[in-house]
Write a structure and sequence with these properties.
With about 160 residues, the protein is an alpha+beta fold. It folds into two domains: about 30 residues; about 130 residues, Calycin beta-barrel core domain (Lipocalin), CATH 2.40.128.20. About 15% of the residues lie in helices and about 50% in strands. It has one helix and eleven strands, in the order αβββββββββββ. A hairpin with a 2-residue loop joins β2 and β3. The protein is globular, with a radius of gyration of 20 Å. The relative contact order is 0.15.
């Protein structure tokens, strides 16, 4: 085999490997069970302290190696709620956009294929930690939230979201 043929084979093999890796990443992202639109099931959820929001919709989309999350709804007092973030599962803090009274940054960590953990901070202090899990059938997302809110109150919430 000539040197030119070896270079061609190595170059071709490299291109094939790069394509396989790129396809694997794209396939893994498209299979994230959290992607989609989720509506809070207020009746099945538990809030301590209350009161519960009137409604909340969560939209989760692919964003590079991580996800983009948008939250929209209506608080218990009738005020609109709109905030979100885009981040990777590398535990690095990313800015929360919009109006979230309990967070100005968030970090994400993947636990397994169906579970993640998000840690929120406000003014440098940890406030809330969310354990997020999507059911095996992909129809329900459960968010177990604990910590201390911006008012200094202990929080122990269980939010149940239904896929839309």
């Amino acid at each position: 085999m000539t040197a030119e043929m070896r270079r061609w084979c190595v170059g071709g093999l490299t291109a094939v490997l790069v394509a396989i890796v790129a396809m694997s990443v794209a396939t893994a992202q498209s299979k994230d069970p959290a992607y989609g639109t989720w509506k809070l099931n207020v009746a099945k959820s538990k809030f301590s302290p209350g009161p519960a929001p009137k409604e909340s919709t969560l939209t989760v989309e692919a964003d590079g190696p991580g996800r983009k999350v948008a939250v929209a709804g209506v608080a218990a007092d009738g005020t609109p709620v709109k905030w979100g973030y885009s981040g990777s599962f590398d535990r690095k803090e990313v800015k929360v956009t919009g109006s979230n009274p309990d967070a100005d940054v968030v970090s994400l960590r993947r636990i397994d294929a169906n579970s993640t953990r998000t840690t929120y901070k406000k003014a440098g202090k940890q406030t809330l930690v969310n354990g997020v899990a999507v059911s095996a059938d992909g129809k329900t997302m459960t968010v177990v939230q604990s910590g201390v809110n911006a008012k200094g109150e202990p929080v122990k919430n269980t939010l149940i979201f239904d896929r839309q």
